[in-house]
Write a structure and sequence with these properties.
Blueprint: E1 5-6, H1 10-15, E2 19-23, E3 26-31, H2 35-44, E4 46-50, E5 55-60, H3 64-68, E6 84-90, E7 96-104, E8 109-113, H4 118-128, E9 134-137, E10 141-147, H5 151-156, E11 160-162, E12 178-183, E13 186-191, E14 200-206, H6 207-218, E15 223-225, H7 228-237, H8 264-269, H9 275-279, E16 288-295, E17 306-308, E18 314-324, E19 329-337, E20 346-351, E21 354-361
Parallel strand pairs: 1-3, 4-15
Antiparallel strand pairs: 2-3, 4-10, 5-8, 5-9, 6-7, 7-8, 10-14, 11-12, 12-13, 13-14, 16-19, 16-21, 17-18, 17-20, 18-19, 20-21
Helix pairs in contact: 2-7
């Protein structure tokens, strides 16, 4: 996208004191009160994020799920109505073109893809899906995320209900479940999901109503607006990769630590893009791995810092890094040789000529707090 666009809530963010920056082709708020305060508020209460830059896409037509499975490794055809799955858009060589959420929305599949890649993703879908599958880019929809331990209580106060009999309301959803809902006369798409590691919801709202809905949420005592800065530090603590940084077209799923996205049935059929190359690494044959690192000292290492061996030769690279407000210490993700990826291993990182020590640490760095069903009632 060559020009910078504005989101439906652009004026609202500015009125709220949002500091705006260019991101994914849009002007977006990086912070309001401050990144540290917004991060900690989300961990203890409920943060409101505008993620309307993300691509919302409908796939409509008989056989849409089976057709999509040619370019993703997830078992999409097995999704029941209201269920969603994290998956990967794969190039013919198995490289990751994007990571995305796919929901069985009843009459269609609903996809949420990354904002910076959405136009390329749509072009790739048009190239690879049959003409019998209609692809709708929902440009007239905003997307809000309400995240944190008090998100469900806050959302319950807006009197949102299932759109028709048989569909649950937001409070009845578990993690990775979705339902069409209604706020008064306004149709909403509500999923219990997010990108912070906390319980929470993502809510698709018609652009004409998104400001009124955001205003209603922001008026609640539990809720504060949160910008991109805290969204990034929250997802880093949760061990979640960011496309374009921790994932690229040169990255394969196994080395990225995303083997869970390779459904058992699909591994058996091996009929998705790049399957031979991807499965050659499964489950533990990758030469390098995405690893979590706790950095000694107080100074963070940033994307682009290099991992070096005892002779100073580059053997890996940091892809995300920053200061963890929850842990009060620097953390990072890096691709390192598989032999150095065991927890507790010390590795040397070089940033601007200065050495740092990182200790390989299991991710997530901060325990995830998803609202899952009791084990006795959980379904695959």
């Amino acid at each position: 996208m060559s020009k910078t666009d504005t989101l439906p809530l652009d004026s609202w963010h500015r009125a709220q004191g949002g500091r705006m920056v260019d991101f994914a082709g849009y002007q977006m708020p990086i912070q309001y009160e401050g990144i540290m305060a917004e991060h900690l508020w989300t961990r203890q209460s409920a943060g409101l994020f505008d993620v309307s830059h993300m691509g919302q896409i409908q796939l409509i037509g008989e056989g849409a799920a089976e057709a999509l499975e040619a370019i993703v490794p997830g078992d999409i055809s097995a999704l029941k109505p209201g269920r969603m799955r994290y998956t990967l858009l794969l190039a013919p060589d198995g490289g990751i073109l994007d990571d995305l959420m796919v929901t069985n929305a009843g009459e269609q599949l609903y996809l949420v893809v990354n904002g910076a890649t959405k136009h390329d993703d749509i072009a790739y879908l048009r190239e690879n899906l049959p003409d019998s599958v209609t692809i709708n880019h929902l440009e007239g929809e905003g997307l809000l995320a309400l995240q944190g331990p008090k998100a469900a209580d806050a959302l319950a106060r807006l009197d949102i209900s299932g759109i028709e009999e048989g569909w649950p309301g937001p409070g009845d959803l578990y993690f990775m479940q979705s339902a069409p809902c209604r706020w008064g006369d306004v149709p909403l798409g509500v999923s219990r999901s997010g990108y912070t590691g906390e319980d929470g919801f993502e809510i698709s709202v018609p652009a004409a109503h998104v400001e009124a809905f955001a205003e209603a949420l922001a008026a609640l005592d539990e809720v504060k607006s949160v910008g991109l800065g805290a969204r990034d530090s929250l997802r880093l603590e949760a061990g979640l990769p960011l496309y374009g940084h921790d994932l690229t077209p040169e990255t394969l799923p196994v080395e990225a630590g995303l083997t869970f996205a390779l459904s058992k049935k699909r591994r058996g059929s091996a009929d998705f893009a790049g399957a031979e190359r991807i499965l050659a690494q499964y489950p533990d044959k990758a030469d390098r791995l995405r690893a979590g690192l706790v950095i000694e000292g107080r100074q963070p290492v940033r994307e682009g810092a290099i991992v070096v061996d005892d002779n100073g030769a580059e053997i890996g690279q940091v892809t995300s890094g920053g200061f963890s407000p929850t842990l009060a210490q620097p953390i990072a993700m890096a691709y390192v040789p598989a032999a150095l990826a065991a927890p507790g291993t010390k590795i040397t990182i070089e940033q601007r000529g200065k050495p740092f020590t990182g200790i390989v640490t299991p991710m997530p760095f901060v325990p995830q707090n998803y609202h899952r069903p009791p084990k006795s009632t959980a379904k695959a």
